[in-house]
Amino acid sequence: MNLSRRDFMAMMGIAGATGFLSPSAIASSWGSGKDPYEIPEYGNVTLLHITDTHAQLLPVWWREPGTNIGTREQKEWGVTPHMVGDKKLEYYGIKAGTPEGYALSCMDFDTLAHKYGKIGGYAHIATLVKRYREQVGKKAILLDGGDAWQGSATSLWTKAEDMVGAQNLLKEDYFVGHWEFTYGADRVEYLLKHKLKAKFLSQNVFTIPWDEPVFDPYDIREVSGRKVAIIGQSFPFTPIANPAYFVPKWSFGIHPGHMQKMVDECRQKHKADIVVVLSHNGADVDKKMASQVNGIDIILGGHTHEIMGPRPVKINNTLIINTSTNGKFLARFDLDVGKGKLNGWRFNYLPIISNMIPEDQEMADYITKVRAPYAKKLAEPLAVTESLLYRRDNFNGTFDQILCDALREEMDCEAAFSPGFRWGYCKLPGETITMEDVMGQTAITYPQVTVTEYTGAELKNVMEQVADNLFNPNPYYIQGGDMIRVGNIQYTMNPGETIDKRITDLRVGGKMVQANKRYKVAGWGAMQKVEGTPVWDIFAKWLRSKKTVSANPRDLPVLTKNMAGNPGIAFPKEYDL
């Protein structure tokens, strides 16, 4: 099905009578008086980019972080993407309360969520992708930045086959990976060889011990008589951030030197007119890589779930974006590609607000079919939340708070740890938490719950190591993710300090931690192979017993006063600032 603007607006007219906002209501709420998804055609190449959908086939609630700190030591104080809330809106010139304001900011999230609706959904993405392909024809290239195969119950239970089917229906052209590798090398290779139609590219994955490339590093595509080089960059820290036993014969890394070699090869050997990197590095790593590698025109980034739009960041003549998560945005680059150079560009950062975009029927039917065998199990009601539940924040998100509470109580422990994952969608106050929602926070291939006795010194060391991963001044030591989530642990944090000095006044249950005393801590997502009950079973059992849950109080750190005024903190009172 091809979809012109006329078709799209006609569908929206029908949708206005079936729960969607009408075209006039959409234009009015946007404040522009016109269709916000109408993009004038420009140039001779169009790049369409999605990333980090985390297997969310259906629309979800997604709140932007209220805390996303960049420090002066990192040279990231007030630098995109380390701005949140009103500061982010001011930087981009976006009016609060509009659909764009809702999409870009955490402010007034509950109110605006009820007003504008859920974000993402592959059927809604498909509608917009088809519309733009109809507009620009063969000039369009659709690129997926990875983390598409993990994050939902159905992706876990089908071993990612549900998502591959959706990718194929979207007719994606290129793909890179991260969480995909946690299905194991054999499963990845099988799906890439026998199921996925998109080309999987990675210049930074090699065999052990031979250092031979596992995947094609790049592809040269001729569009409108110009040669477009697409270089793939999968997540460089896969065997560190996730269990190495999933990919025991593969090595990963950033490999900026090899990236430079690939760029030069594309330009010199293949006479590429422009070079595009499809990256899963994370925003800060992409920025440093751009400063070191010459000849990249555009980096389409992912991994850290950042909003790096509506304006790209420019470093060393490289334009860098990061296209959020959960299908919240579709990024569109329209390029005027000349002989051996990029003459001009136009960029649009398009929120996928499901009430404003009708479903593509083909994709909607596929999603219904693939979910049908699991529908009853997914729909099981567990408890009602009194709090807004979300994960994404530098420190304890509210969903992680109740997960830590569940682990601590069910495992009879003094404290709990939960990984600082950035995936996992939201629930609004008053909504029922279902089994699907539990899986949306926990669906990984290494879910076993463990109980570990840490000394006080070991407890602090674990937390210092994670803090260094988040706040190290060298971006190449930042793996992405947020601070480890804690239950019944209190501390003071100075993000601007160095390792072993960031955390002070560490307490368990309000009592100062003693270096040699042992503390019983529940956790999940271990890096080594362990036996244990899957975390979703523990969490679901606890929710059933509670009936109603609240994320108050939260185990948030006290931040040191040098963080006062940081544009990466929307609600300073939460941290005693």
TrEMBL record:
Keywords, comma-separated and alphabetical: Hydrolase, Nucleotide-binding, Signal
Q: Which InterPro entries match?
A: 5'-Nucleotdase_C (IPR008334), 5'-Nucleotdase_C_sf (IPR036907), 5_nucleotidase/apyrase (IPR006179), Calcineurin-like_PHP (IPR004843), Metallo-depent_PP-like (IPR029052), SoxB_N (IPR041829), TAT_signal (IPR006311), TAT_signal_bac_arc (IPR019546)
Q: Where is the 5'-Nucleotidase C-terminal domain?
A: 397-524
**Which is an annotated Pfam family here?**
Metallophos
SUPFAM superfamilies with a match to the protein in the record? 5'-nucleotidase (syn. UDP-sugar hydrolase), C-terminal domain (SSF55816), Metallo-dependent phosphatases (SSF56300)
Residues of the signal sequence? none
Q: Which GO terms describe its molecular function?
A: hydrolase activity; nucleotide binding
Supply one GO CC term from the record. outer membrane-bounded periplasmic space
Provide the GO biological process annotations: nucleotide catabolic process
Enzyme class name: hydrolase
The EC code for this enzyme is: 3.1.3.-
Locate the Calcineurin-like phosphoesterase domain: which residues? Answer: 46-306
Tell whether Signal is among the UniProt keywords: yes
Does the keyword Transmembrane helix feature in the UniProt annotation?
no
Q: Highest taxon of the source? A: Bacteria
Which family, according to UniProt?
Belongs to the 5'-nucleotidase family.
Q: This protein is called what?
A: Mannosylglucosyl-3-phosphoglycerate phosphatase
